[in-house]
Amino acid sequence: MDTATARENRTEARTENEKPPGKEYIVGRFDLSALTALLHEAAGGGNELGEDDLDTLFLDLGYDSLALLQVTGVIERDYDVTLEEEAVDEAETPRQFLDLVNGALAGRAAV
């Protein structure tokens, strides 16, 4: 199954306001330490990301598109936010990805 199909299936399976029983969603800003933890979990390890890594390509940091897809799924579930597939594909660095996630969180909070 390709990345686009997997994301479409996940999006279709979850309605906009559907929440698993007893699940509280995380509220607030998504930061570099949270991204690092999710990347480590998705990739089975890795280096700590620091401020110097913000503009380094994920591929150069050792994270492939599958790791980012897994991280995106966790963020969408835990933060109750939908990230546009094209925007996720264009986010090639931690800074771009953090800006994308925090922009989506800010948009959700404004609603």
From TrEMBL:
Give residue ranges for domain Carrier. 29-105
Instruction: Provide an example Pfam family for this protein.
Output: PP-binding
Annotated source species? Streptomyces cacaoi
Q: Which InterPro entries match?
A: ACP-like_sf (IPR036736), PP-bd_ACP (IPR009081)
Extract the PROSITE patterns matched here.
Answer: CARRIER
Query: Mind telling me what this protein is named?
Result: Carrier domain-containing protein
Question: Which stretches does the entry tag as region Disordered?
Answer: 1-22
